[in-house]
């Protein structure tokens, strides 16, 4: 099971994924004003490639945006491509 935790210092933040206590991935973002944040980087540990870790972190970012009435700017190529493939996530763009 993939567990995702969020860290945020009001300027930058991240979503960190772990599987069975092992670091599986990291998605970082930067705030762009009060209402938007930019996903600028996504990385998945090689051992967990293809297991949905990146998408799980993106889903947590979308849930956070929805719950807090924020918008996401997907600068990272992975986030941008995942948004394009999943219309159900595009309401936060």
From TrEMBL:
**Cross-referenced Pfam families, in alphabetical order?**
Acetyltransf_CG
Q: Which domain of life is it from?
A: Bacteria
SUPFAM superfamilies documented for this protein = Acyl-CoA N-acyltransferases (Nat) (SSF55729)
Q: Which residues form the N-acetyltransferase domain?
A: 7-93
Name under which the protein is recorded:
N-acetyltransferase domain-containing protein
Lineage of source species: Bacteria, Pseudomonadati, Bacteroidota, Flavobacteriia, Flavobacteriales
């Amino acid at each position: 099971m993939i567990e995702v935790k969020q860290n945020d210092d009001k300027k930058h933040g991240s979503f960190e994924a772990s599987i069975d206590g092992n670091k599986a991935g990291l998605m970082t973002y930067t705030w762009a004003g009060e209402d938007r944040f930019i996903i600028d980087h996504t990385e998945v540990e090689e051992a967990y490639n293809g297991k949905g870790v990146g998408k799980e972190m993106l889903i947590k970012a979308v849930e956070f945006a929805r719950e807090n009435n924020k918008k996401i700017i997907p600068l990272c190529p992975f986030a941008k491509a995942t948004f394009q493939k999943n219309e159900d996530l595009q309401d936060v763009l």
